[in-house]
Fold this protein.
Amino acid sequence: MDQCEKKLKVFSGNANRELTEDICKCLGLDIGHSEITRFKDAEIRARILETVRGAEVFIVQPLNSPSAEHIMELLIMIDAMKRASAKEVCAVIPYYAYARQDRKTQPRDPITAKLLANLLTASGADRVVTLDLHAGQIQGFFDIPVDNLKGMPIIADYLLQKNLEDIIVVSPDVGGVVRSREMADRLDCQLAIVDKRRPRPNVAEVMNIIGEVDGKTCVLIDDMIDTGGTIVNAAKALIEKGAKEVYACCTHAVFSDPAAEILQDSPVKELIVTDSIHLPVEKQIPKLTLLSVAPLFAEAIRRIFEEIPVSKLFD
């Protein structure tokens, strides 16, 4: 990749350096030299330690907790790259923060997902690459190109290799039916739905199971697992309805405390997630399977750099 070594540079924030290193290995590149430190008053300082003049720069930074810190790191790095005469700067955001605040549900609510899009654009980002946005319409909040990659094919391929019998895909709520139906199509199986209501944020109550799950191997699929309540309640309801075993899958393992412990103690047999968010060792519970999204992002970066269609990655 002689051309890439001259013009393509990939840098990392502090949120998930391991993922950036894996992406660079897939591309055959060295990770860009930079450092992000703190002044004594905790203000963020970003230093780019190599020339980026005329280069196409990709900055990898998921925006998980502490999201305010990770967002500011990314904004400051983008600004530094533009001021150092980078030709183009692409923000590679495996996990997009505030995606659940994409509309007004109460009077005087902010639309924080749109605010974040404005901040990224104002900082100088020319393009965004992300993964499984909680709400696909967030792409429309940007006036720059946004590629929303899919983690589902990676999870589906893993499940197919397990040769599970009597599978049925289960959507943990009505809002996830489109996502679950796509997974059911990939696994060539039926679909069931957990009908629930949410009395308040981060609290879910299972109401009913739509579909026949008795004796089935159930695969719960969601874009993210935060507190774990939705998945655990759904798994318990499925077991009560006669499910043989329950697998749970998601792209983004947010795992707000004490989600890891709750999931480990739940009826879920195996929890399948991607490494879009860095998981500390204490949250890598025994029933967790971690799948890499590095090859997917590396291929997207390669295609953007070589100016060939990215659309193939959505198949």
